[in-house]
Amino acid sequence: MADASEIGSPSKELLGFASYLYKPDKSGLRAREGVLNGRRVQYFKGKSALNALTKSDDGQTPKCATREDAIEWMQDLLDYQLIVRCDKDAQNARLLRINPMQNFDEETYYAWLYEGSRILVILGGIGVVAVVLAGVMFPLWPSVLRNGTWYLSMLALGLLGLLFGIAIVRLIIYIITVVTYPQGLWIFPNLFEDVGFFESFVPLHAWEVPKDAKKPAQVAEADAGTLGAVDTDADAKKTE
Length: 240
What we know:
By secondary structure, this protein is α+β, with helices and mostly antiparallel strands. 52% of the residues lie in helices and 13% in strands. The radius of gyration is 30 Å and the shape is extended.
């Protein structure tokens, strides 16, 4: 393996290639999780990386015009130790070991040593330190800020308590209606659905639809679609 200190720092263009491959939402390269030297790493197959660099989606120009260019870039990633060639353990596929041959081969696996941009990590650390310092210096805050923080915290706790109260009440009403009626009544049926804040409280209530009632409706829709297709075919034959 080449010593990164001997060949200098990677260029911005090479780091751009590494960042592109590292983010699956951009490159489409799906990495798997493994263990290398006792720590968790993300690894991928060389062929998948070449496909990600040479693919052309939605008319966009691929990162590399040819597969040979992509191989050269992958070898540069190896030389600058942004990735490392590794082999799977015969007993446990998640365990990886470094291959002494650090030349690129699309049929082998590579683990990421590159960890992406450190800016978000640095900003997150600064934010944590700022929050801790602000909490420690709370007694020194102006009285207006301390009173405002207290009221905001009480408001947040009140909203949380109200949400729990609504959840308990709606569950009690549902259990009562299930026992006394064939169907259960849900108050705010969309309360825990994946919808917007205001949509969570609309409608105010709704009766639970039995599962058996859904199937006939689906069958009827399918039958209607089939009959419509048959009628269309019959009309076409008459026209001919």
